[in-house]
Amino acid sequence: LKEENASLRSKINKLQIFSETQADKMRKLERKLEENKIKEEKEAQDLEAMVQHVEQNLQLMTKRAVKAENNATKLKQENALLQVQLKNYKTENEALRSGQSASLAAVKQNADLALQNLLTIITNSRSSIKQLVSGAESLQLVADLLRSIDRITEV
């Protein structure tokens, strides 16, 4: 009976040690789980902040693209007006050459001025069109980034 009692006590001690080991492992796993939860929450917050930042950038780029489109339209209209003026100046120039109007120098000066204005408008419109294309490319990049973020969120 004493031997059996000693054997049972030994088994109880072993089970208590095993139980304490398992409890330690459980506490470590619980801490690790809590750390992982905190880490995931931080990552989710960071991702949300990034999405908001991207959305703000998208809105800003959209405004810039609209502004560039409006500017391009305005410059196209101005370009068309200057082309009409240039045509009128050319007609006037031809009329002056045939002796129907004022001096040839004044017509040449008007034509040169119109040409300078036209070249300035063309240069400005090219710049605005380049900005518009750049804005469209940026919007495409942001859209691709948002798609990637959606995929990351799904994963």
From TrEMBL:
InterPro entries, sorted: ENTR1
UniProt entry tagged with the keyword Calcium: no
Residue ranges that the Swiss-Prot or TrEMBL entry lists as coiled coil: 19-92
Keywords, alphabetical: Coiled coil
Signal peptide (from-to): none
Keyword DNA repair attributed: no
One GO CC term, this protein: centrosome
GO BP term (any one): positive regulation of protein localization to cilium
Family to which the UniProt record says this protein belongs: Belongs to the ENTR1 family.
The protein's name: Endosome-associated-trafficking regulator 1
Species the sequence originates in: Dromas ardeola
Name of the gene this protein is made from: Sdccag3_0
